[in-house]
Amino acid sequence: MHTDIPNIVNLIHAIGGDKVTVKEMMSRIGLRGRDNFLTLYLNPSISEGFVRMLYPDSPRHPRQKYLLTVKGLALYHELKKNT
To answer: How much is the pTM?
Structure first.
């Protein structure tokens, strides 16, 4: 499992095994601009299959959180093992 996109790797580290909100992810990475975060980190991670929504049928759900997919967890454990 491998990705060449460092933003995805950073996001995978930030999520880990947790279910987190956009605000929590941004805080863990140290970002403030929500639009840039969505464009550069979250949307590519979702489209590459590393991250998924807790409520995929309702993207604007008030308690929406994000977690790693099986693919994302595999990469997370591989990255964790290599550090």
So the answer is: 0.91
